[in-house]
Amino acid sequence: MTNRILLIHTGGTLGMAPLGEPSSLAPGPSLDRILEQVPELRQLADLKLVVAFNQDSSTNEPADILHLARLIRTEAADCEGVVLVHGTDTMAFTASLLGFLLADLGKPVVLTGSQRPLAYVRSDARSNLVDAVTLATKGVAEIGICFGDHWYRGVATDKLSVHRYEAFDTPNLPPLAELGLHVHVHPHAGRFERRVPAGLGQVFETALAVYAPFPGMPWALPPIGTRGVLLHAYGAGNLPMGRPDLQALFCHCRERDLPVVITSQCLWGGVDLETYELGALAAEAGALAGGLHTRWAALAKLGLVLGAGGSIVEVREAFGVSWAGEPV
Ligand code: ASP
What we know:
Elements: E1 4-11, E2 16-19, E3 24-27, H1 31-37, H2 41-44, E4 46-55, H3 62-75, E5 81-85, H4 91-101, E6 109-112, H5 125-136, E7 143-147, E8 150-153, E9 158-159, E10 168-169, E11 177-179, E12 183-185, E13 208-211, E14 228-233, H6 244-255, E15 260-264, H7 277-284, E16 288-289, H8 295-307, H9 312-320
Parallel strand pairs: 1-4, 1-5, 5-6, 6-7, 13-14, 14-15, 15-16
Antiparallel strand pairs: 2-3, 7-8, 8-11, 9-10, 11-12
Helix pairs in contact: 3-4, 4-8, 8-9
């Protein structure tokens, strides 16, 4: 056996068990038990096991993910690849953050999980695990999510379904690999320029205000202490710029040099503030266009840049450049 793969458990449905009556799912047996249930994984690779934590991923904090990034750098030094078992709820955020922080790792990091626990007879857990370990042995330097029949670049992913086995997608990027009868890794996998600025990842700034506008929404000013604002705008980046309370919000942010980044509520396509007059007015008011960044990639970039003490100038630069293969 030559393929040494680091298998890290962080929790999620894959390892969950029913808890009491009525039976809600809660974190259950961790990695050792998982391997008892899927012993065939050892036929695919020489597995090195680490339990980082064992929780519902809705509980994860950015600091947990920064810790994971450091853990992977240390523990994967003698491994060819990494598989990370993770809950689906915040997997796209983790994949985005790790995609940036580990862009230079030079080996595959494959995140996976499942919609139904491994302990259930009818479950997607077993095949997702087997596929993830298989991909981790392929030597393709990508940080991506393996789920259903695909592998997706992490920094471009979002969770799209609560119940379908194909729960993830990268709406603005083709999948990295198809896993069916054969495992077909596409030629673009592993091929992207790595331009992540140095010095990120010690701190993630969470003092961010995120707005998800709806027609008629009152625009409250961000709380005191806010360091950056994310607006999930309509379509190509439109907002009701005629509203005095929204104007007041922009004015508040300009006076304090707070970055205001606009992403789209739509999944396919991105923000282009020149398309409509309202977008152009938002740009004039100081908004930065998030382009094709997913909400998770945008959040990850903003939190990393501000966490490293970056200013509005650095935030603007960050959103104009693809750091790790994310569509911009
Ligand atoms: N709540 C679970 C989690 O994210 C959902 C899942 O894993 O599918 O941890």
